[in-house]
Amino acid sequence: MQYRKLGKTGLKVSEISLGSWLTYGNSVEMRAAEETIDRAYELGINFFDTANVYARGEAEKVVGRALKKYARDSYVLSTKVFFPMGEGPNDRGLSRKHILEQLHASLKRLDREYVDILFCHRYDAQTPVYETLRTIDDLIRQGKVLYAGISEWTAAQVQEALHIADRYLLDRIVVNQPLYNMLDRKIEAEIIPVCEENGIGQVVFSPLAQGFLTGKYKDPSSIPAGSRAANDKVNVFIMNRYWNDATFEKVRRIQNIADGAGIPMAALALRWVLREPNVASAIVGASRPAQIEENAKASGLVISPNVFEALDEILL
């Protein structure tokens, strides 16, 4: 496993990291989840990502329990705050009240004294950015959070946060968690340039496009049993974003390039994401050890420039 610095910080994270969205505490039973996390750790993966909203806190419990056997300073642990965790008017967003209450609840579920990264899971238009950043700055000073992060913010929102942090001498955002893969490249236009300029690194989610870039989905007329597209909780997401004839044709062409290069399609897709210097890590989901073993092989994989050139002809 190879490691990259996260933006301009001194923190190093594994090129492949393990997430827990739609898996742990939900569709994957505890033993399988723990075995997968153990195998990831054995392979050198040191970055584990979760969120309070994943299975309403159950994912945090699974991740926390599985990692408890390892030295706390040997891995990087992140969680998130924003989405509703209750029915009350203050049970969502990025207000001081919600952030403080949810961070403490997350630490309890994780059974940890601190998290390395706290992500603002989305931008909150109803809360002043200063209030959000001041609260996270306070948590950093208390040692309960080490680094501030965001997820799926626009370039303008990132610049707003940086301006406020500098004006009031608050801890800056150092990491962004956006969706990024061969089929969805929107962060390349504005997000990456702004982040590069300001020392913010990317840890991207859905690098395999929810399974599309593994070759799992071959025919738009059928959904494989047991696949993510067969899961009602992600079906709409996949159908709206990827399920169309143009995407299936693009995936078929990518598969041909992978076959010609003798590289598994998933490994090629992960390596493609990591070709971008601003990307520190690609977050994958895995429900069993064999999956994380295959994904981990993408770290350090050497691919001919000709292969990337062939992909550019398909993807641009």
Task: Describe the overall structure.
This protein has 316 residues and is α/β, with parallel strands linked by helices. The chain has a single domain, classed as TIM Barrel. The chain is built from 11 helices and 10 strands. The strands form 2 sheets. An 8-stranded parallel sheet has the order 3-10-9-8-7-6-5-4, covered by helices on one side. Helix 8 packs antiparallel against helix 11 (305-315). The longest helix has 17 residues, at 245-261. The two termini are 30 Å apart.
Task: Describe this protein with a few key phrases.
316 residues; eight-stranded parallel β-sheet; 41% helix; alpha/beta; TIM Barrel; two-stranded antiparallel ribbon
The secondary-structure class comes to: alpha/beta
User: How far is the first residue's CA from the last residue's CA?
Assistant: 30 Å
Biggest sheet architecture: 8 strands, parallel
Named CATH architecture: Alpha-Beta Barrel
Kindly state the percentage of residues in helix.
40-55%
- CATH topology label: TIM Barrel
* Rg measurement, Å: 19 Å
**Global shape:** globular
CATH top level class name:
Alpha Beta
How are the strands ordered across the major sheet?
3-10-9-8-7-6-5-4
Count structural domains.
1
Unreliable stretches (pLDDT < 50, length at least 5) are none
Short description:
This protein is of the alpha/beta class and 316 residues long.
SSE inventory with pairings:
Layout lengths: L2 E3 L6 E3 L1 E3 L11 H13 L4 E3 L8 H10 L8 E6 L14 H15 L4 E6 L8 H14 L2 E6 L4 H13 L5 E4 L14 H7 L3 E5 L26 H10 L3 H17 L3 H10 L4 E6 L4 H8 L8 H11 L1
